[in-house]
Design a protein that fits this description.
102 residues; Trp Operon Repressor, Chain A; 6 helices; 78% helix; globular
Length: 102
């Protein structure tokens, strides 16, 4: 059974996530984003973000199979499939939003 602290913890996590999104929205350049993310994330997390972003761009360009992308990025086909699902099917459409702005 969950105690009352669990509900408060979940609510705080939601607030923290929203605060993070607001902080990211305040960044004005790639250089500022790099400074903030290098403080926030581990090198491995940044590497994973970069890999997913490269996969999203390759999928958006078209002409690459999952196998091609795996060979070029070192990513697993599971990761490639997840990025593809979020790029094409999920409601968030964050990849699409940024790809269309570039």
């Amino acid at each position: 059974m969950r105690g009352p602290g669990q509900k408060n913890l979940k609510a705080q996590r939601v607030k923290d996530e929203k605060a993070l999104y607001e902080a990211l929205a305040k960044l004005k350049s790639g250089a500022e984003a790099a400074r903030f993310l290098k403080d926030l994330a581990t090198p491995a997390e940044l590497e994973a973000f970069g890999e997913r972003w490269r996969i999203a761009r390759m999928l958006d360009e078209g002409g690459y199979s999952y196998r091609d992308i795996a060979a070029k990025t070192g990513a697993s086909t599971t990761t490639i499939g997840r990025v593809a699902r979020f790029l094409k099917e999920e409601n968030y459409q964050g990849y699409r939003l940024v790809l269309d702005r570039l």
